[in-house]
Write a structure and sequence with these properties.
Length: about 425
């Protein structure tokens, strides 16, 4: 920004102070077009107000009350009081689109609070006095029963009008329309990823007063995007027409191009040479790998040593019979075969691995050993040929009868 430009323009804060408006009132005046702005010369892209515009507003005969009255915003309760109706009736009229909100905010309960211009509310009362008293028409009642709410759509239409009025160039106007659509909808209309990236760079800033919390901000962002099917279709058609107009004037910049389209003051700085030119695409040169010679020239392999022969296994001594092993005498109730009847295991034959790659024949299976009787532990009498005893149930009953008969006898008392 030059010295001459700084003398001809002022910042928004300085202009609001000279016009005797609060910060939110001044933003609303800019949004409504009551205060005209000009693009700033700095790199930040902040718009400024010309000194002649401030002088024009201050020279008005009704300054400052007239300007302050035109930007006066009221809530639902104050708007209903202006029309002398109940807040519920005013809400029903706003939902059917008779009054358009100028901005919104979220309270601490994350409920949407809509704000209206007091001047527009008074004009509606003078234009439609029949809707202020009596029963609402049938078509309005049916729309209300269908949960129709046109307040978010009317607010988006008002905001888009402001964005299109302040946009600089066809690509900026296309970006303003794309800001009202979901990214999925934008991707379906704009096929080129470089054009989508260019629209993202030119996307307008969100409306002032957006909440900071994640949950509240997500709810506020849903209000800034089209959600009705016919509204989405209308905005998609508008975006397609705006893209055709922008492509006819200048295509979107691609990576490595020097003619990039930048918003506002950045484009002027680019033209003046104050911004560096993006370098061209780098070319990657591949160096071929050196050819490999024979394997012996690259790395000599060590000589393979022969595998030594496996020494022959010594034959194991013959297994002595169990009868030759001393042990305690075994008492059995019946004739028990002695352990000497167990055949000894055959001696292992040595195996020579003359050819390591040849298959080794499997060993012959051992003959099954005859079943032997389990030894009786010492101190326990050997089993005799006694008859099987009575079941335990009958033995218990016999003991019970004997004890009962013994308890029935009277014992003799002996005195000392």
């Amino acid at each position: 920004m030059t010295v001459d430009e700084g003398a001809r323009t002022v910042t928004p804060g300085r202009a609001a102070q000279e016009l005797e408006l609060r910060r939110d009132e001044f933003r609303l005046a800019v949004q409504l077009g009551l205060v005209r702005t000009a693009p700033g010369g700095g790199g930040g892209g902040q718009r400024r107000i010309e000194r002649s515009e401030v002088d024009r507003l201050r020279a008005a005969p009704d300054f400052p009350d007239g300007l302050r009255e035109r930007v006066r915003a009221v809530g639902t309760g104050e708007a209903a009081a202006l029309l002398e109706i109940t807040p519920d009736r005013f809400t029903r009229l706003a939902r059917t689109g008779h009054v358009s909100p100028v901005r919104f905010s979220l309270n601490r309960y994350r409920a949407v609070v809509w704000t209206y211009l007091a001047e527009e509310v008074a004009e509606f009362g003078l234009a439609c006095p029949a809707l202020l008293t009596g029963r609402l028409p049938l078509d309005l009642r049916e729309r209300l029963d269908g949960r129709e709410d046109l307040r978010p759509r009317n607010w988006r239409a008002r905001r888009l009008t402001v964005l299109l009025r302040t946009a600089e160039g066809p690509w900026a106007r296309a970006a303003a329309i794309a800001s009202l659509l979901d990214p999925v909808q934008v991707a379906e209309v704009v096929d080129d990823p470089y054009e989508r990236a260019h629209l993202d760079r030119l996307r307008p800033a969100p409306p002032p007063g957006m909440p900071v919390g994640a949950a509240a901000r997500e709810r506020a962002e849903r209000l800034t995007r089209a959600d009705d099917p016919d509204e989405i279709l209308w905005q998609r058609m508008s975006l397609a027409l705006a893209l055709d107009e922008a492509r006819a004037e200048r295509p979107a910049p691609y990576p490595g191009e020097t003619g990039a389209v930048l918003p506002g003051a950045a484009a002027e700085a680019w033209a003046d040479g104050r911004l560096p030119v993006a370098p061209g695409p780098r070319v990657l040169t591949l160096t071929p790998a050196p050819a490999l010679g024979p394997a012996s020239a690259v790395w000599p392999l060590p000589a393979v040593r022969p595998v030594p022969a496996v020494p022959a296994l010594r034959p194991s001594p013959a297994v002595r019979p169990a009868s030759a092993v001393p042990g305690p005498a075994v008492r059995t109730a019946s004739a028990v075969r002695t352990a000497s009847a167990v055949r000894p295991a055959p001696a292992l034959r040595p195996v020579r691995f003359a050819n390591p790659g040849a298959e080794v024949p499997p060993a012959p299976p051992l003959p099954p050993s005859p079943p032997t009787a389990l030894p009786v532990p010492a101190g326990r009498p050997a089993g005799t040929d006694r008859p099987p005893g009575r079941p335990a149930r009958f033995r218990l009953l016999d003991r019970f009868r004997r004890r009962r008969a013994h308890a029935g006898r009277k014992r003799s008392v002996s005195w000392p």
